[in-house]
């Protein structure tokens, strides 16, 4: 696995890349991509970091696993490639965006436009085998992405963390709440959203309110 990650992250993550767990993870991923159909494409594994550079991070959204269907995953959590039908969670994200900020429901589910503005769309696990959800969990990715969260918490100030659902909420312990803002809600998946745990959280307007308070430019969601 080639770690094609933007240079802004390298001073902070170089130590992780040299640890034994990461070397084992890299070998595992390389082997999986050679013998199986895996997502996202190899050159997009670190897309979240390549579109959101370290010094630009102002919002972090944490997902669990890349989409495992053909042509969906593009290295950004909850995001799909242009012209790909929107998965259920993304539909609910866009519905909340519409009711919160009055933004018309977007045609494309590609969230690269968010990432380019400083929204780190971080999956806890960065790769997956085709049609097998969770197939690359517990191989070392979570150690790496937990380290990313800790580094952002330690080195930066006033970042807004959006923790959606139980899995993401467990990451709260990695974040210094005295320095950063943490917004939590249910997951946007239909199971949680239809029980009333997602809609109305107003996380998009709240994030922008907090960013303005931190003298940051709000996100054009």
From TrEMBL:
This is Uracil-DNA glycosylase. The active site is at residue 65. Residues 50-211 form the Uracil-DNA glycosylase-like domain. It catalyses: Hydrolyzes single-stranded DNA or mismatched double-stranded DNA and polynucleotides, releasing free uracil. The keyword Secreted does not apply. Keywords: Cytoplasm, DNA damage, DNA repair, Hydrolase. Its EC number is 3.2.2.27. It comes from Litoribaculum gwangyangense. PANTHER family: URACIL-DNA GLYCOSYLASE. Excises uracil residues from the DNA which can arise as a result of misincorporation of dUMP residues by DNA polymerase or due to deamination of cytosine. It is an enzyme of class 3 (hydrolase). It is found in: Cytoplasm. The keyword DNA damage applies. Belongs to the uracil-DNA glycosylase (UDG) superfamily. UNG family. CDD domains: UDG-F1-like. NCBIfam families: PRK05254.1-1 (NF003588), PRK05254.1-2 (NF003589), PRK05254.1-4 (NF003591), PRK05254.1-5 (NF003592), ung (TIGR00628). Signal peptide: none annotated.
